[in-house]
User: Which sequence fits this backbone?
């Protein structure tokens, strides 16, 4: 059944690439040694792990010792934000984040707020862009860490990371973290060119395995470990390492970097077809027109619930999302769209289609055929259950009143 | 075979409803409705049907059956259709009937509308213990010549579980698109079926409390949402002040406990007067009546059987139905028809705001809200 579905939710996760699985399998079957063990089996595992560190580092323009492997993007971000904030707390207890950060950054900052940090949130414009000078204005000599995402996961807007890094580093010693989890397979991520101190990536967003991520930590940057135990990852992340995962992440990242030149225009072309097909009265494309990730088509549909549209599409065999996977079922509107100035009624109509390297023209054709009737049905349901102001009427309608 | 949307609460009943329909070959879609903020928390304690644990249970069962599953946020709709009238009833000295409103306006209102209009479903199904059958003879009630059979709403066959009382507000258009797969089953059969299917909820305990009042504390809901309540006197039948209350909201006609008064013989709340902010007590026999006025009447068939007819009247879920004569009393200025139910034998503690449901044997004819005398 799932074989027949069209998957346009690559911003949520991507299929594991066959090449990646192939290189991982020997490490799961035979290379199961503990990299910390002194014996031959341990050394073999350690060699594979070291190799993965080096390859990941090379892809980011870093060195192997600057890479800490983690259980995924969220852990990388938690380690960067919390570990960096505590390490910098001698300067002061102040953090600066943007208003459109992923919940991993925002939640980490809020956690620190409960432990005495001030959190300054820098707003964005209608396109979701952070103004580097607004960041500069928010950073003080008391600031421990600044975190701004490389590109947004809901609307795809790319942030001017190098310009922000330059502003942040006008204050000596302030750490700058960029969440590059969504950006990783699509943007060149040279840590020197970007000027970041910390950078997070995740395996499953780029054709690698779930459950593995990496954090770049610039040489000489101190962070406070958030997970304690053994001395793995140079005391920065305790726990026996997932060698197969590390190898998978390294391979997926290498492939993504190698293929970027061909994959980006191809994927952007598919994305543009999707955007062109939905653009029209009552549909507004969200995010920056040009400075955006190539794979995300995000838009808001007037007079409809995005969740209704995605449910209708799922029943038709098309997987996409409203923009942010929510575990609680709450239709809380996107904090990203809210920060971009979309009123609640408009933000409720958010839909995100995200293509991937395996997406075909036929997949996009099918999506283009399914979208208009899905939007039409969702609007009909919305019209039946909403009052003129877009909210529920006092007397909820009975189906008897429906056409 | 048709496409059916099943409202899954995460309890055993709706789990089995979904499993049965799936086994019968329907294309089943499971949904869990997020109806209020209480649903946003996990709880180690609460058995509410609406915590996130319940959503997880529903999702697990949907996965076991192998059906699509979605979470629908209907908080705003639930607030307007259920919570607001709930608060208004208490503020007016009445006893609300939130489960009736939820069935009529949310499950078989908003949800059914969305199921049909958005998801192309033919019906909504729930785990209610009630039955929908074709009425005899199958005649059309529509001017369009469609030979649509009239539907009847019947009690569930398990007398201990029958929930038809809460469903009297459904009409023909709703019943044509409603399935109650458990209507002819007993609870032990439902549990056995859940075990046979290996459903995760097979051994889950019953949930009886109001879903939006965790721990059963519905007075906390009132306090949180309506701070306007002020204290007043509790008086005995002769008018003597015997105690004080901290707000009439939350008191119910027939209530015995929680009054904070001790008199020689048992006293019950017999009347709640919002105008004077007074709780009036009475002896057990003072709460007996043979006349109950009802407003906001609703008829399953679409119209009442006659301007005067005989039926069995039930003034409370679980109360014994009592033979009665029901008479049309004309219309209020608002066009709201009122009816008088005169019972052959007295009923006890008919609480204004609660439903009075009228039956012909097992058939639900309709009902309305008990009006203030």
Assistant:
């Amino acid at each position: 059944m799932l074989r027949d579905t069209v998957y346009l939710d690559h911003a949520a996760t991507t299929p594991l690439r066959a090449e990646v699985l192939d290189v991982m399998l020997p490490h799961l079957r035979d290379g199961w040694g503990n990299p910390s063990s002194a014996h031959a089996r341990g050394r073999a595992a350690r060699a594979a792990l070291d190799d993965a560190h080096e390859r990941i580092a090379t892809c980011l323009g870093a060195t192997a010792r600057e890479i800490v492997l983690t259980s995924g993007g969220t852990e990388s971000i938690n380690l960067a934000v919390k570990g960096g904030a505590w390490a910098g707390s001698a300067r002061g207890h102040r953090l600066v984040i943007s208003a459109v950060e992923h919940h991993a950054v925002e939640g980490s900052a809020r956690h620190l707020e409960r432990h005495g940090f001030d959190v300054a949130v820098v707003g964005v414009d209608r396109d979701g862009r952070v103004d580097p000078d607004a960041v500069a204005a928010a950073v003080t000599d008391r600031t421990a860490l600044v975190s701004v995402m490389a590109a947004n996961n809901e609307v795809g807007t790319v942030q001017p990371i190098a310009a922000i890094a330059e502003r942040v580093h006008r204050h000596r010693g302030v750490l700058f973290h960029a969440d590059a989890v969504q950006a990783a397979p699509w943007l060149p991520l040279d840590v020197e060119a970007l000027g970041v101190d910390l950078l997070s990536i995740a395996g499953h967003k780029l054709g690698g395995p779930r459950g593995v991520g990496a954090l770049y930590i610039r040489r000489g940057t101190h962070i406070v470990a958030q997970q304690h135990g053994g001395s793995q990852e140079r005391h920065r992340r305790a726990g026996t390492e997932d060698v197969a995962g590390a190898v998978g992440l390294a391979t997926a990242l290498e492939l993504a970097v190698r293929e970027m030149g061909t994959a980006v225009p191809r994927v952007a072309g598919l994305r543009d077809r999707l955007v062109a097909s939905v653009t029209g009265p009552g549909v507004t494309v969200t995010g920056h027109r040009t400075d955006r990730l190539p794979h995300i088509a995000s838009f808001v549909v007037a007079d409809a619930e995005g969740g209704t549209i995605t449910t209708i599409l799922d029943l038709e065999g098309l997987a996409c999302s409203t923009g942010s996977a929510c575990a609680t079922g709450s239709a809380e509107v996107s904090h990203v769209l809210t920060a971009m100035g979309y009123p609640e009624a408009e933000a409720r109509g958010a839909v995100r289609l995200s293509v991937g390297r395996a997406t075909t023209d036929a997949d996009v054709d099918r999506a283009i055929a399914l979208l208009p009737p899905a939007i039409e049905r969702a609007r009909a349901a919305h019209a039946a259950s909403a009052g003129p102001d877009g909210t529920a009427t006092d007397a909820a309608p009975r189906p008897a009143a429906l056409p | 075979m048709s496409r059916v949307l099943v409202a899954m609460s995460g309890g055993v009943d709706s789990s089995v409803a979904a499993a049965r329909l799936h086994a019968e070959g329907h294309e089943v879609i499971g949904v869990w409705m997020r109806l209020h903020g209480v649903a946003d928390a996990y709880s180690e304690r609460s058995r509410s049907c609406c915590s996130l644990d319940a959503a997880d249970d529903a999702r697990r069962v949907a996965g076991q059956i192998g059906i699509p599953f979605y979470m629908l946020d209907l908080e705003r709709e639930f607030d307007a259709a259920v919570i607001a009238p709930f608060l208004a009833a208490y503020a007016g000295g009445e006893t609300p009937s939130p489960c009736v409103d939820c069935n009529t306006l949310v499950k078989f209102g908003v949800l059914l509308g969305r199921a049909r209009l958005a998801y192309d479903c033919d019906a909504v199904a729930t785990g209610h213990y009630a039955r929908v059958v074709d009425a005899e003879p199958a005649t059309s009630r529509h001017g369009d010549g469609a030979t649509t059979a009239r539907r009847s709403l019947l009690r569930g066959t398990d007398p201990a579980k029958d929930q038809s009382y809460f469903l009297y507000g459904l009409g023909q258009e709703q019943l044509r698109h409603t399935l109650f797969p458990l209507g002819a089953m007993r609870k032990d059969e439902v549990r056995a079926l859940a075990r046979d299917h290996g459903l995760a909820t097979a051994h889950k305990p019953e949930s009886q409390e109001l879903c939006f009042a965790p721990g059963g504390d519905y007075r906390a809901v009132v306090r949180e949402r309506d701070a306007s309540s002020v204290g007043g006197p509790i008086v005995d039948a002769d008018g003597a002040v015997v105690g004080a209350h901290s707000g009439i909201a939350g008191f119910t006609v027939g209530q015995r406990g929680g009054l904070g008064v001790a008199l020689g013989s048992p006293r019950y709340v017999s009347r709640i007067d919002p105008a004077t902010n007074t709780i009036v007590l009475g002896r057990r026999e003072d709460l007996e009546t043979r006349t109950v006025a009802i407003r906001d009447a609703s008829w399953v068939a679409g119209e009442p059987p006659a301007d005067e007819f005989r039926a069995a009247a039930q003034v409370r879920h679980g109360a014994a139905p009592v033979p009665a004569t029901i008479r049309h009393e004309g219309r209020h200025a608002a066009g709201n028809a009122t009816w008088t139910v005169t019972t052959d034998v007295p009923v006890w503690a008919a609480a204004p705001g609660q439903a009075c449901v009228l039956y012909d044997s097992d058939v639900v004819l309709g009902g309305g809200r008990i009006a203030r005398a």
In short: The first strand of chain A starts at residue 6 and ends at 7.
